[in-house]
Design brief:
By secondary structure, the chain is an alpha/beta fold. The protein folds into two domains: 168 residues, 3-Layer(aba) Sandwich (D-Maltodextrin-Binding Protein, domain 2); 116 residues, D-Maltodextrin-Binding Protein, domain 2 (3-Layer(aba) Sandwich). The protein has eleven helices and ten strands. Strands 1, 2, 3, 4, 5, 6, 7, 8, 9 and 10 form a ten-stranded mixed sheet that branches. α1 packs across α9. It starts with 11 loop residues before the first strand and ends in a 7-residue tail after the last helix.
């Protein structure tokens, strides 16, 4: 077992359970570069996509608890997937939360060529074409899939899901016009807000985005609709407390570093930097709210 005083003496692997280029991957790289600078060893990103992120979570859950393998994940791997399907890890027993790095809303984006400029116009168009329009999701059972399923359920829409491994290819599909809708991370869609390739119709949180003040909320059409995501570090259970504390301390510092804050804000991501205790509370609150969202969306839950 590694001692915190000796850690790290070699590179640390940070498993990102999605493909390169997406929201989680981008935040992981920002945070890991900061940690590498602080600890004097490389924090190497290893992308392990698949199974809604469960492939990466399993790899970390089975790793040696020595501080040299970490997970930079989301509630998808910790809450959603274990609720929706049988997996070979128990997130409550096999993984320890360290700190949330950032969180953000979702944006409802549609294909630019569609004759719709508002949420209600889009809903009317979909209802006039039942079963004919596609929407992208970043994996099955993930936050984006759940968020989209909840919206479709509330609006009473009949659309065809097209799952992609992560947000980056899902976003690329929308930009290319291969799908009609992607209700994805704000950090992904906001980069195309001024382009003519997509239209952004709404934001998922109760508050409008400061960066897109003219974009309404979904709640204006469907009161109470309020969804967002979080991303942070986890370690295998049994990792020395001193190492966990050191990682939490520096992740909090990273989330308050001015250059990182500016970069995250530009992408509509809220810098967090939580203690482990605060992270545990967020997980429990997310577990309750996500269960309610799954039921509202008609998704089968494994108890």
């Amino acid at each position: 077992m590694a001692r915190a005083a000796d850690w790290p003496t070699r590179p640390v692997t940070v498993v990102v359970p999605y493909s390169p280029g997406g929201n989680t991957d981008m935040m992981a790289r920002l945070a890991s570069q900061y940690l590498a600078d602080k600890f004097g060893q490389p924090f190497v990103i290893e992308n392990r996509a698949g199974g809604g992120g469960s492939v990466g979570a399993i790899a970390v859950a089975r790793a040696q608890p020595d501080g040299y393998t970490l997970l930079f994940g989301a509630s998808t791997q910790i809450i959603n997937i274990p609720m929706l399907q049988k997996v070979s890890y128990d997130p409550q027993k096999d993984l320890v939360p360290i700190s949330i790095f950032g969180a953000g809303p979702y944006l409802l984006g549609i294909k630019a060529s569609l004759p719709c400029n508002t949420v209600q116009e889009f809903i009317g168009y979909v209802k006039a074409n039942p079963g004919k329009l596609n929407y992208a999701t970043a994996g099955v059972g993930g936050n984006i899939h759940l968020n989209t399923a909840l919206f479709i359920a509330r609006a009473g829409l009949d659309m065809v899901a097209v799952p992609y491994k992560s947000g980056a290819p899902a976003m690329a599909a929308l930009v290319a016009g291969e799908v009609e809708m992607y209700f994805g991370n704000a950090s992904e869609l906001i980069q195309h807000a001024d382009s003519k390739l997509i239209k952004i119709l709404a934001v998922s949180t109760l508050q409008k985005l400061q960066q897109l003040p003219d974009v309404p909320t979904i709640a204006e059409s469907y009161p109470g609709f309020n969804t967002s995501s979080w991303n942070g570090f986890f370690a295998p259970t049994g990792t020395p407390e001193a190492i966990l504390d050191a990682l939490a301390k520096e992740t909090i510092a990273a989330a308050h570093q001015p250059a990182i804050v500016e970069r995250l804000n530009r992408l509509a991501i809220l810098p967090f930097g939580t203690t482990t205790g605060e992270f545990r509370k967020v997980i429990e609150e997310s577990r309750v709210s996500n269960r309610l969202a799954m039921k509202a969306a008609g998704l089968p839950i494994i108890d």
